[in-house]
What does this fold into?
Amino acid sequence: MKPIFWIARREIGSFFYSPIFYVVTTVFLVLYSFLFFAILSDYSQGSMQAAPQAEALQKAGISINVNELVIVPSLGNMGVILLFIIPLITMRSFAEERKNKTLSLLLSSPVHLSAIVAGKFLACLIVVGFMILLSSYSIAFIVLIGQPELGPIVSGYLGILLMTGCYIAMGVFASSLTDNQIVAAVIGFGLALLMWLLELPAQSSDSDIGMILKYISLRSHQESFLKGVLDTSDIAYYLSFMAFILFVTHQVLDSRRWR
Amino acid sequence: MIEVEHLTKNYGPRSAVKDLSFQINQGEVVGFLGPNGAGKSTTMNILTCILPATEGKARVCGFDTFDQSLEIRKVIGYLPETPPLYQDMVVAKFLEFAAGLRNVPKKKIAAAVDRVLQQCGLGDVRHRIIGRLSKGYQQRVGLAQALIHDPKILILDEPTIGLDPIQIIEIRKLIQELGTSHTILLSSHILPEVTQICQRVIIINEGEIVAMDTLDGLNASMRHTRRLELKVRNPADDIQNKLEALDKVLSVQTRGRDLFVIESEPEAHVQDEVARLALDQLWGIEELKPIDMTLEDIFLKLTTEEKEVKEAQI
It folds into this structure.
């Protein structure tokens, strides 16, 4: 096994020992489920009211689509909840190692610094991926009671996973800056929220700067995934975003040795 | 095995290590001695490639700590001052992790773990959680982690700090055993430890080497003078002057009214003269004995000598 997998495995193991993981997962699932069933009951009420005029609606080209009306907003909500919750998962990555003085074990082992960063990132991604997997019971529920289109669901989840990767990269980066986990969580949350909100000023202006802000914003790249389109430029955006932040993390850790 | 040349490390404007040069040969057990904050840990962190040096070079097994750090990290076992232990892990799992990090082939990991568990006397606690172990056991787990890949060189930063006397003896015994097959650099500010375990001592103070020799060599080089201690029953005011008037006596210090330390030339046997004088003057000899220099004295002398001079000048 390569060092990166040893590091990731140890990291994942310690998540399952810590209460933080269970608390965070529970909060995530409760919030997500609450919003999901609120949307679902709205949807079923709406479709019941619409049933008498089904033919008229069909003629007018309006369809009541479970994908569009339930799954897309649910995935959107999940993205927001993850924004709040991921910093709590990533905050310990380097802050805890530094506080407990365990980083010297990693640094004095024949392991590249990049493998340490990648191992930490991978561990968080797997843990959050597991949380997302738990939440997908809701999709199974819809598949049982209705006939959603599966393509957009798969691409939507891929989009969420890619955005999650970006949140995690920022969280790991924040954790490399300090030995205080709370500070790391706050910085990670601030960064993630900022990158997510960049789109807002863009909506009110059509200027070039607005376009650029919209392009940089993490959320604007979600749209194609939710529609069921796999746009390589969006995938490339997310992947290069992660790579860039992890590279900066590497540089931060490396430069701390010189101080 | 370890060569250090003109090593300097600055933390901002403060330099922790200044122009350090020394060598350690294969199979040696060397004590690295100095008061807290002397630069011991910094030097060790540079040798283990955790910190880069500001200036100068360090080579371990012929590899440069700056350019070939991965090669060095394969042959070195390091126990930092605070053992790097994941408190929530089980001892055996932690050692497997350490073995994996150190590139121990997968098939040999179980054997390596068993070996260090036995070496460090951890067999009974292999399934316990590290955070629940006593400090002594945690220290041993720290040592076991440094030994897992059977490194040629062991660097141990204050391996006995915070242990109780029995644990200290056990760890020292373990290090002595390891010394027969490994090159060891060990730091300490506890002097008897170094006299017991090490063949050679490097004494540093405020980032600079103040002495580097074998224990005997240090003793010999420090003994420019012989010292006698005289304790009397009937102290008188003129004792010091009368002792100083004796032939070959260099100086006499008083320690309280009845205790005198007489420093004489190394080859002279002034004890006869001192005894005769004491009997003639009816001072009443309570005690008359030679004082050997302990490592403690050497250490104190080396690390405080300059300060005394500086203070005297003021």
